[in-house]
Write a sequence for this structure.
């Protein structure tokens, strides 16, 4: 099992100092910022045992890392506020709020993090199958980055209605381990599927949405929200079979996946409190999905034999009505 020793984990919080600094800045026309908080953090992990499993479970690298646990500030007129963190170069997030006018607000938020993967979670000894490097597959380079960024605009039309528009970006890049494992055999040993499938990822999703809200008779809350998403990904999925029982490669398979779809939604909801003890909610959802995903397969029966190749295109459409 993984034994992780945290040698150094400490942070310096400058809240008290920045309160005094904020008072000076509030009186200054140069800065324009107040309530400034900066909290740095430093970590050093020394791991004995399975470092890949430690990185997967903790989502951090072993060794030294440094960053900011918290960063926040507000302008003196309170029209702009910022909150964020950057614990390391692979784990950060932010939220920026801007008061554009008395009736308009803008919010920009995002997050970025890295998920590490252990080469193999199986408690097995690859050397018994005449395998060594194939078992863990370069733990340090086995990770996938995820990011998300949202821009949201809101405007109050009057006291009972408002509109909003937004854009949501989602992406993932790198390599990840799948739950499926490939075969390894040897005489006198159990046949296992402990060699992990590994996928190279490169995908982005773009979602555009709008929203209209209105309150009728000071009681009934109505909301209309259409959205449109475009998603496309490229995934090269590799996995290798060692079924000959002598440590030699039996089959090298590769899936060339291209997940791709467009999705249109329109949601309508209505809710109200009938009385102090009764809440009423109803809604309707229309969905249109066009799936254009493709999976091509390279599946040779041996290292020296010709490859087979297929190109099945999903290419279907679905319409659903849910109430």
């Amino acid at each position: 099992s993984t034994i992780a020793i945290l040698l150094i984990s400490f942070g310096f919080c400058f809240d008290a100092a920045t309160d005094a600094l904020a008072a000076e800045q509030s009186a200054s026309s140069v800065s324009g910022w107040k309530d400034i908080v900066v909290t740095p953090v430093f970590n050093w992990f020394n791991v004995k045992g399975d470092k890949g499993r430690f990185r997967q479970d903790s989502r951090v690298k072993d060794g030294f890392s440094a960053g900011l646990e918290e960063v926040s500030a507000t302008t003196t007129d309170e029209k702009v506020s910022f909150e964020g963190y950057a614990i390391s170069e692979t784990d950060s997030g932010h939220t920026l709020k801007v008061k554009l006018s008395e009736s308009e607000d803008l919010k920009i938020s995002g997050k970025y993090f890295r998920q590490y993967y252990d080469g193999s979670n199986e408690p097995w000894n690859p050397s018994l199958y005449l395998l060594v490097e194939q078992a863990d597959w370069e733990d340090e380079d086995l990770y996938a980055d995820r990011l998300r960024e949202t821009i949201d605009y809101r405007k109050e039309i009057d006291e009972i209605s408002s509109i909003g528009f937004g854009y949501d970006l989602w992406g993932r890049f790198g390599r990840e381990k799948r739950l499926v494992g490939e075969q390894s055999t040897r005489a006198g040993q159990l046949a296992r599927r402990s060699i992990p499938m590994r996928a190279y990822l490169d995908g982005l999703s773009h979602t555009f949405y709008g929203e209209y809200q209105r309150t009728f008779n000071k009681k009934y809350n109505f909301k209309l929200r259409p959205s449109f998403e475009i998603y496309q990904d490229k995934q090269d999925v590799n996995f290798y079979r060692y079924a000959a029982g002598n440590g030699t490669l039996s089959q090298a398979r590769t899936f060339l996946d291209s997940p791709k779809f467009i999705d249109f939604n329109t949601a309508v909801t209505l809710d109200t409190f009938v009385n102090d003890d009764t809440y009423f909610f109803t809604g309707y959802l229309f969905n249109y999905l066009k799936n254009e995903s493709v999976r091509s397969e390279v599946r040779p029966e041996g290292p020296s034999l010709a490859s087979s190749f297929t190109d099945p295109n999903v290419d279907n459409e679905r319409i659903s009505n849910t109430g």
User: Anything to note?
Assistant: The CA atoms of residues 148 and 170 lie 5 Å apart.
